[in-house]
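MOLECULE: protein
FOLLOWS: sequence and fold
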Amino acid sequence: VSHILIKVADNATKKETKKAYKKTVKIRKSILDGNDFAEMAIENSECNSASGGGRLKYIKRGYMPKEFEDEAFALEIDKIRDVVKTKFGYHIIKVYKKIPEGQNPYEDARDFILKYFQMEETQKRLNEHIAKLKEKAEIEMFLPQIKK
């Protein structure tokens, strides 16, 4: 499985959430229009897997958020369906290969498990840091707001 993630913070406003969704939809459309999935992941994904073209290797139920897994396991190979929302943000998912369920050797899953927990811990710490910065911040607006 490969994916492109556009993050949405736990404390994101409706405007920020909508902006992330629109960005994800735009990226998905460009892929459907012929742009390479891996290149779009490298350019846009906010996941640690971006540098590898969004590649997560094989996934097994129980490792990823339920919404992600439901979409990934329902997808046909090389197809892209709708944008998927999880606790991390919005995902575009592509399945490259399916293998029958079985027990993967630890060596095959070790890197994925490590990256998954590192990503989760990094996101948690980042959200905490942002919250602390917002508490301390003194923000002054010098330019008028532009309405769209």
Observations:
- The first helix runs from residue 14 to 32.
- The CA atoms of residues 84 and 137 lie 33 Å apart.
